[in-house]
Write a structure and sequence with these properties.
The complex is a heterodimer of chains A (117) and B (114). Helix content of chain A is 0%, strand content 51%. By secondary structure, chain A is mainly β. In chain A, β5 (42-50) and β6 (53-57) form a beta hairpin. Chain B is an all-beta fold and 114 residues long. Chain B is 0% helix and 50% strand. Chain B has strands at residues 3-6, 11-14, 19-21, 23-26, 32-38, 44-50, 56-59, 62-65, 75-77, 86-93, 102-104, 108-113. In chain B, β10 and β11 form a beta hairpin. The radius of gyration of chain B is 14 Å and the shape is globular. Classes of the chains: A mainly beta (117), B mainly beta (114). The interface between A and B is medium-sized, with 29 and 24 residues.
């Protein structure tokens, strides 16, 4: 158990819909990262938050957005869903900023499996 | 940009066989290197890491050495067990555009038969 929790575990929805994925980081961790795992693209970094502020962006679509709240939990919002958005979405957390600190470990949650029909 | 290339799978071995999974990287400067493991139905777990050249990461019988001259971080284990069956991901954390976030290889699925 990494200490990172994600809800829901599974999500089935239709094209055009909007969903929210939730992540609670390990106690004390200030950084939250979102990753997407799909068969064709593999594991890709989406976005990072540190203590409530956006820190880095990866291959995140404009239809996707995220935020980190004062209690440090984070939500990833996916809108206007397409079939190709079906994937496993992971949240990870670390105790550092991810910047200027090399090699800090990221702890991954169990993921949310999204199926868009 | 930064990238990781690891050997394609799947890899099937018999119990107690020697394992090598190759990983090479392209990055600006000196990234940190990681191996993560994903067991069926679970999230990723850190297996080992190395943060500078010639460092050796080790855990649960697995080892990998950070080779700057060959830009490699190959994963090895002397005697695999059935319980090692999983998908293994090589990853880097760089100093340039990818600093802070992990860049992953495509993963290598390992199946160990009794």
């Amino acid at each position: 158990d990494s200490g990172v929790t994600q809800t829901p575990k599974h999500l089935i929805t239709a094209t055009g819909q909007r969903v929210t994925l939730r992540c609670s980081p390990r106690s004390g961790d200030l950084s939250v990262y979102w990753y997407q795992q799909s068969l064709d693209q593999g594991l890709q970094f989406l976005i990072q938050y540190y203590n409530g502020e956006e820190r880095a962006k990866g291959n995140i679509l404009e239809r996707f957005s995220a935020q980190q709240f004062p209690d440090l939990h984070s939500e990833l919002n996916l809108s206007s869903l397409e079939l190709g958005d079906s994937a496993l979405y992971f949240c990870a957390s670390s105790d550092g900023q991810g910047r200027e600190i090399r090699g800090e470990t990221q702890y991954f949650g169990p993921g949310t499996r999204l199926l868009v029909l | 940009g930064d990238s990781v290339t690891q050997m394609e799978g799947p890899v099937t071995l018999s119990e107690e066989a020697f394992l090598t999974i190759n990983c090479t990287y392209t990055a600006t400067g000196y990234p940190s290197l990681f191996w993560y493991v994903q067991y069926p139905g679970e999230g990723l777990q850190l297996l080992l890491k190395a943060t500078k050249a010639d460092d050796k990461g080790s855990n649960k019988g697995f080892e990998a050495t950070y080779r700057k001259e060959t830009t490699s971080f190959h994963l090895e284990k002397g005697s695999v067990q059935v319980s090692d069956s999983a998908v293994y991901f090589c990853a880097l954390m760089g100093r340039g555009g990818s600093q802070g976030n992990l860049i992953f290889g495509k993963g290598t699925k390992l199946s160990v038969k009794p």
